């Protein structure tokens, strides 16, 4: 630019010089005064033009200088930004390395005595849920006889079989209605009183409900049984929300899956306990059934004794209440170590990641585009547990075993054996949960249940067609008798795969999918759906059995196939992931998980 302006100025000066020389030559040759005056005027005019040209060039040179200074400043700014980007990249690399080291240290944490004690104290609530789910089945005839006697004493006439069935159905189903109310209230209870505080207060309901059921016969009132079942249902609904939340928040990262499975282990132990105590040789009698129902007071009292020693959830203390020192004290007790900085940092990272979602309401949770996908996953996982057909298997198990050649008494003990198998397989799934992963185990569980549900349907069809086949093909009688054992194997296989996947995973994964802010509301919605599905199955299964007969399990097979496809396509793996990483997974892959 400088060269261009210099050349332009030189050309203009040369032209002016040539013009001046020409005019001077004319003056030297000319004699007249007028011509001299005109020539001088022209020279003066050209000198003025030359001056203007010089000034114009100087102005352009100044502008170019300013442009060059601006360009230099911009280049300096670009270089500075480049250096800042490099520093930022180095900082991000250091942060990722620090996060990775922190996660490795978190993965090295082990099971301590006090952590074990706290988890045992908490899961007594899930044992309460399992016990009260199964306890009403064994003394069915005894309870119906009691209702008949009460009705006759009140009204002086016998009650119809249809009405007595309706009364017993109320005693069974009102438990699920209470569970819906309790489950939906769990989020409010967890935020208002804390996880531990909510569990302690909930035992008041447990003791009240157990006392009402235990004194039903003494009071000669089946309404007291209904009220007791409703109150214990509210208690169990709150337990199914609070206990998984508490355990997921106190468990170390590398043990969260296995310790989450302890929820289902407690449920299966409660179911087995109710089956064993409900046999006629123990409490399954006209005199013993009130004691059988009243024993629900034991888990509540035991938890009231043990739980006060346990710490509140550190995540609740730090993130919800902002009590850092209390959270540190709780972590030191749970980890049996004074070095808890990794846990504190991980909680702080979760807090930063969910700052916009703190104290989120149920409607905000449902309307949030980021939180809706994990909420849908949590709901479908709960449905996969209840609509899998496991309740139908327990309903059919005794008749299946009788049809395979066992006596009535042996078939009842075989049903207890199914409960024992569930306990054993849940124990087996605990170490697998953090090795194989939640998603993988759930797929295995749903797939195995689908296959064995088809086999159960085949065994029903064989049983139904047995007289016809025997009449026309008597020589295949032996083979048909052998095939009847297919029902036993199919039932056992169905239960085994339920314990591996759908039995335990829905309880833990809902708590894992959400950060501290929306977790209580999400758990409340998911648990409400679980109890509603439980109620629907309990009410609808007898009608479905009458309508479909030998094809009763086909709807469950269809549901299992749908749930398997959904899990394969939509459910992420949460194994060894922090709550912050799981939250980021849905934010970064928002489109993938929206249905």
UniProtKB/TrEMBL annotation:
> Membrane-spanning residues where?
111-131, 167-188, 200-220, 226-247, 259-277, 289-309, 416-434, 441-462, 482-501, 522-544, 550-568
**NCBIfam families cross-referenced by the UniProt entry:** SP
Q: Which InterPro entries match?
A: GLUT, MFS_dom, MFS_sugar_transport-like, MFS_trans_sf, Sugar/inositol_transpt, Sugar_transporter_CS
Q: Which family does it belong to?
A: Belongs to the major facilitator superfamily. Sugar transporter (TC 2.A.1.1) family.
Cellular location of this protein?
Answer: Membrane
Xref: Gene3D superfamilies:
MFS general substrate transporter like domains
Q: Which domain of life is it from?
A: Eukaryota
Query: What is the name listed in the Swiss-Prot or TrEMBL entry for this protein?
Result: Major facilitator superfamily (MFS) profile domain-containing protein
Report domain Major facilitator superfamily (MFS) profile positions.
118-575
Single GO term (MF): hexose transmembrane transporter activity
- Species this protein is from: Glossina brevipalpis
């Amino acid at each position: 630019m400088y060269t261009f302006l210099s050349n332009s100025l030189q050309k203009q000066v040369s032209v002016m010089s040539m013009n001046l020389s020409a005019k001077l030559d004319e003056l030297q040759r000319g004699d007249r005064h007028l011509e001299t005056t005109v020539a001088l005027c022209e020279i003066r005019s050209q000198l003025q033009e030359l001056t203007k040209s010089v000034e114009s060039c100087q102005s352009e040179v100044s502008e170019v200088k300013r442009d060059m200074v601006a360009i230099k400043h911009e280049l300096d700014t670009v270089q500075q930004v480049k250096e800042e980007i490099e520093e930022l990249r180095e900082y991000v690399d250091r942060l990722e390395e620090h996060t990775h080291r922190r996660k490795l240290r978190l993965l090295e944490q082990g099971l301590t005595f006090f952590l074990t004690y706290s988890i045992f104290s908490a899961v007594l609530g899930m044992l309460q849920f399992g016990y009260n789910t199964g306890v009403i089945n064994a003394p069915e005839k005894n309870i119906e006889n009691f209702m008949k006697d009460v009705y006759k004493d009140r009204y002086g006439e016998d009650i119809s079989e249809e009405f007595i069935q309706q009364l017993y159905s109320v005693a069974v189903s009102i438990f699920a209605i209470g569970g819906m109310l309790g489950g939906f209230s769990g989020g409010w209870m967890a935020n208002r009183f804390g996880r531990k505080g909510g569990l302690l207060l909930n035992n008041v309901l447990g003791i009240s409900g157990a006392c009402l059921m235990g004194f039903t016969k003494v009071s000669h009132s089946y309404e007291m049984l209904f009220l007791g079942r409703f109150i214990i249902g509210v208690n169990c609904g709150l337990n199914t929300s609070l206990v998984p939340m508490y355990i997921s928040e106190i468990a170390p990262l590398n043990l969260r899956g296995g310790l989450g499975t302890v929820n289902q282990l407690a449920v299966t132990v409660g179911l087995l306990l109710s089956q064993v105590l409900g046999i006629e040789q123990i409490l399954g009698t006209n005199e013993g059934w009130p004691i059988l129902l009243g024993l629900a007071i034991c888990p509540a009292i035991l938890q009231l004794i043990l739980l006060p020693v346990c710490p509140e959830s550190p995540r609740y203390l730090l993130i919800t209440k902002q009590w850092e020192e209390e959270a540190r004290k709780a972590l030191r007790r749970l980890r049996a170590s004074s070095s808890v900085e990794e846990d504190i940092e991980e909680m702080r990272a979760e807090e930063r990641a969910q700052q916009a979602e703190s104290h989120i309401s149920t409607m905000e949770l449902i309307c949030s585009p980021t939180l809706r996908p994990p909420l849908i996953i949590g709901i479908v996982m709960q449905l996969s547990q209840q609509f899998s057909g496991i309740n139908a298997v327990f309903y059919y198990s005794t008749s299946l075993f009788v049809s395979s050649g066992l006596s009535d008494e042996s078939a009842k003990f075989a049903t207890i054996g199914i409960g024992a198998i569930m306990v054993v397989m849940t124990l087996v799934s605990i170490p697998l949960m953090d090795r194989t992963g939640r998603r993988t185990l759930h797929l295995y569980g749903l797939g195995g249940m689908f296959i064995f549900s088809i086999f159960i349907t085949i065994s029903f069809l064989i049983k139904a067609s047995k007289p016809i086949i025997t009449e026309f093909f008597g020589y295949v009688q032996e083979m048909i008798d052998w095939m009847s054992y297919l029902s036993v194997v199919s039932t056992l296989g169905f239960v085994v795969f339920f314990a591996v996947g759908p039995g335990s995973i829905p309880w833990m994964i809902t708590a894992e999918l959400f950060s501290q802010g929306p977790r209580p509301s999400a758990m409340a919605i998911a648990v409400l759906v679980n109890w509603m599905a439980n109620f629907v199955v309990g009410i609808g299964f007898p009608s479905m059995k009458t309508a479909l007969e030998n094809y009763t399990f086909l709807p469950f097979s269809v549901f299992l196939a749908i749930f398997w496809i959904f899990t394969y396509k939509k459910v992420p793996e949460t194994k060894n992931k922090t709550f912050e990483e799981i939250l980021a997974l849905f934010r970064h892959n928002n489109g993938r998980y929206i249905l």
